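Task: sequence design from structure.
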């Protein structure tokens, strides 16, 4: 039995001051299409821009619903609109972050707010030993999010970007449980209550 799957199933929703992280459903398709169809958002993720709403619905049905334990929609509390997605993929005692955010919400500190909740959950509840993340090197805003949640850059490598059939530079980031606990002890993180 995989205890992390049980724990993930018991934590379907998280809340912050401005956000709710919750499971994606087909009812979220129009909100998600707003950012999955944006070429500027798609520039930084692994999928091409969605050309129509049916592609977004297909993604929800064939990816988000079957993989719901490790994926959450990011909902703006003020509007109840899904403005992005965030994932914490678990393998053994490590986790990997992934996210996408509607461009209209960039630069407002929302992604660090969402990622901090999952960072705290990963180390305090799931008891993971490390969280890693990567981003295309040209996407420095994503690197800034990783830095804001306490991660540090551990390297840069060439990766193959299938959707554009070319190699790109990617930055890799990590935060260990020991580093996290030291920062908490030193008062450098306010533990989220999500």
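Answer:
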């Amino acid at each position: 039995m995989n205890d992390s799957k049980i724990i993930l199933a018991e934590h379907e929703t998280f809340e912050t001051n401005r956000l709710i992280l919750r499971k994606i459903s087909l009812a979220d398709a129009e909100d998600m299409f707003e950012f999955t169809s944006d070429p500027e958002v798609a520039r930084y993720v692994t999928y091409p821009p969605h050309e129509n709403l049916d592609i977004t619905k297909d993604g929800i049905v064939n990816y988000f619903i079957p993989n719901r334990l490790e994926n959450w929609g990011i909902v703006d509390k003020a509007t109840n609109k899904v403005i992005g997605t965030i994932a914490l993929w678990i393998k053994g005692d490590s986790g990997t972050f992934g996210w996408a955010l509607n461009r209209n919400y960039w630069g407002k500190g929302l992604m660090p707010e969402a990622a901090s909740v999952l960072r705290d959950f990963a180390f305090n509840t799931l008891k993971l030993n490390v969280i890693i993340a990567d981003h295309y090197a040209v996407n420095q805003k994503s690197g800034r999010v990783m830095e804001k949640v306490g991660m540090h850059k551990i390297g840069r490598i060439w990766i193959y970007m299938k959707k554009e059939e070319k190699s790109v530079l990617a930055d890799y980031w990590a935060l260990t449980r020991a580093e996290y606990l030291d920062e908490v002890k030193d008062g450098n993180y306010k533990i989220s209550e999500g």
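The longest helix spans residues 110-124.
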